[in-house]
Amino acid sequence: LSWNVSYPEQAVHFQLLIRDLHFGLLFGMSDRGEFENADLAVLWSDGHNSYFGDAWSDAKGQLHMDPQQDYQLLGARRAPEGLYLLFRRAFSTCDPKDYLIEDGTVHLIYGILEKPVHSLHAINISAIHRGLQRVQLLKPNITVPELPSDMKTMEITAPDIVIPSQETTYWCYMTELPDDFPKHHIIMPVITAGNEALVHHMEVFQCAAEFDSFPRYNGPCDSKMKPDRLNHCRHVLAAWAMGAQAFYYPEEAGLAFGGPGSSRYLRLEIHYHNPLVFEGRHDSSGIRLYYTATLRLYDAGIMELGLVYTPVMAIPPGEDAFLLTGYCTDKCTQLALPAAGIRIFASQLHTHLAGRKVVTVLSRDGRERQVVNADGHYSPHFQEIRMLKEVVAVFPGDELITTCTYNTEDRSRATVGGFGILEEMCVNYVHYYPQTQLELCKSAVDPGYLHRYFNLVNRFNDEEVCTCPKVSIPQQFYSVPWNTFNRDVLKSLYGFAPISMHCNKSSAVRFPGEWEKQPLPIITKRLREPVPHCPPAPGPRPATPVPLNLGELRR
Amino acid sequence: LSWNVSYPEQAVHFQLLIRDLHFGLLFGMSDRGEFENADLAVLWSDGHNSYFGDAWSDAKGQLHMDPQQDYQLLGARRAPEGLYLLFRRAFSTCDPKDYLIEDGTVHLIYGILEKPVHSLHAINISAIHRGLQRVQLLKPNITVPELPSDMKTMEITAPDIVIPSQETTYWCYMTELPDDFPKHHIIMPVITAGNEALVHHMEVFQCAAEFDSFPRYNGPCDSKMKPDRLNHCRHVLAAWAMGAQAFYYPEEAGLAFGGPGSSRYLRLEIHYHNPLVFEGRHDSSGIRLYYTATLRLYDAGIMELGLVYTPVMAIPPGEDAFLLTGYCTDKCTQLALPAAGIRIFASQLHTHLAGRKVVTVLSRDGRERQVVNADGHYSPHFQEIRMLKEVVAVFPGDELITTCTYNTEDRSRATVGGFGILEEMCVNYVHYYPQTQLELCKSAVDPGYLHRYFNLVNRFNDEEVCTCPKVSIPQQFYSVPWNTFNRDVLKSLYGFAPISMHCNKSSAVRFPGEWEKQPLPIITKRLREPVPHCPPAPGPRPATPVPLNLGELRR
Asked: Where is the DOMON domain (chains A, B) (predicted)?
């Protein structure tokens, strides 16, 4: 599969090479990769004749011909290596049965027909061999910058450790730069080969410059043996999460490291997710840094937006689309950003397994101005660093509001915020320049108001929740009887209660100021949902399949 | 103005007779009769030439030509009595700028152009002479039944009383049927001439048959002088409210009165609304009953659905669309309806001044089945008894759910349920046959749960609400600080808390059974919003005005 995006035409041209065609194939898109309610291009053969058509599958997986044919077949060609199919699909067709191709993740699905079929209706979708590929179809047309001739590489990898036989491990490994390593710019961080299946995400942090030295350490991050000083290693140099591919810095910026005023000490943190509790697995995963001594115009930075990792932000069980929102307030950006502002050029969205959508919106003077990054078909298994279509300027006093949508229909107890894979996060790592001291601009509900919520649930529901101070917040959430009232009131609480702001420098130190019980940003004007642009209908298209002259299939 | 509805064509043909045309006119429809965001047919003249076109006005009242011309001019003809304009409009045009003609109230607006204008854009909508007429455009095509030859009339009117000089008065007047008046059927109740401007609504009730006599009374219904026995006069014989026109019983039914087992005593109740506190106004308003001795197949009945008149159901101030719902539960219909069910043939929706929409839905086995009556542009100034397009069958175990939408944007304190014009009601008087003992099937939130709400608001908002038991419920509502949390939680409460059911016979006696703390009906499947049926586009229509050959206007 390959594809070309034409922004002027607002259409995608797909080219499929089918190496071993049997009696046809299905190719298409659906909300999250399911074969029900999918929008499909279908090539099928009854053994003698072949047909191509635009179809859709209903909630039961039954295929139907689409009255409006929006997958336009442009060509079908046999070649020694297989059959080439070329077809075109507009981003938006204004056909309610069709998938709307948007900026974020697209779940491409495909299936192979192993037997001849006499019609579209005869295809049994549950019996076919099928697959899923997550892609960002509408990647912006950014040319890959030329790599400088003086480029060097450095690998920061785990030293052949044994992955603990438990579900969630955050592993910490301390390493250091060579003596007298001068300032360089990282221009491309790449994951090294390793146990990709068990690595959920990893990050390379630089330590705080105010300490002359840091102890060596190689062990779990939550161990009591871990020296406290490692908590001062929080400046992100490189990050990778499941599904992410190589990412290039734009020509005008690179991530500074080395040189005076910069610590030699680095901390590699790897989140291992080992649900089957494999024992004795060795790992040397890590990140390879491509860097140059030819400094670029700007030092780049990485900033975390969204929610603080705390159990006070929780999702009731059995929700199909529950929203949590984290704020980077005007007060924080006022204090931490330069007058000329910063420019965000890339973004990596991050949640754990319940995440379904993530969006960050820029708001100024109470009015939403611009979407920084949005993924309406977000998958936690596909967390790329994505270049933005256009660079977003953020000025002092602006607000950055990150909202995640979660699905907990398969869970029987509340999902709280935290580090575990079954706990949740709502984070947008934004890549920007010029670098500032602001490393983290996130929020969580005020714990005092959450305490009022538990009291309220307690009293309203006849003392069913234990709010004894000795019980942890997750335990209190687990004991809430989740009726519609308690669900609704939790939503209302998150939409009303003041927040605790984390407006932090890299050393986990807050900027000076009062950050507790801060008012929620007020939005007086929301961005409009974009109205899909419908292509002018090029005359009535027949709802009949297009016969193809491919000869008999199954050569 | 006259119009014809063609249901097969899904279109309305309007005929306008303009007796004194100056330089054109505007005619159209809008949500609630405003001239902004209106859908308009415009005839205008620059003094020499005349044009006709489909236009819309934006939120500022500026007129724009509609790219899709959906008011189709069919003819324009000068006659001695004036200019006739004939045009056609489909119910639904699928143009987002166009008004969707639905079953309920339609606010028709018109304006006269007093000066020549050179273009549509030159029309200043705020400067023109304008008017409003509320109608039900889509009245069902029910033929008026022939009136029987033996039809007689009887007037039940106030005996030249003096309307009290206060805003709200419910006046009670007792009268009686002649001695030995046999059973008859009321077939048409009509309001008599009177102080229509001050009469909000009136009803004729028949008293309970178990009492041999009732005291005479003529005075305010809430007076301490009113004999208690009058509370047993609650069986509705006829009702009228602002805007209602004559209403005919269908041929198979009539409202029984007279004869053995039926009380001779009647109570006329008139709700006077006298906001300007006029003094010394005399009134003899009342209802004229048309009745026949030729009994029809079924005795008809009137049943009240919706909310009990109690302050526990309240609307916060400043809401643009707040919903309150009243239930007639399966338990009540199970007990009170005959196995063969009842047939609802007409419905009168009733709220006070904040009401904007009313809908009653029939639900069976937890699934919504049918809309009984709905008005999405409901006006409290236009409360007709409306014949239903199709008779609705209701069986034991069915649920009737009535939801009212209120707008309190112009109010600074909460609006509670009650009898005053600034208090609210949510009622659907349904007319049905055969008559049953069920006079009233309404609900309100359980008062104990409302008390929990006040406690909760109190604690969550730092003791700002006084919930001392001596303070009335309206006073408690008035003291709530209406932040988003308190609003949201009130909504959640009404959507969650158990209800107190009024499942009453005509004598205000409840059917036997437990009616307090009843569970809310559970709806597992909602009715879909009807998808507007778009007429096939009859070729591209020009977005240019149609020139008319009318000669020079202003003869």
From this structure: 1-113
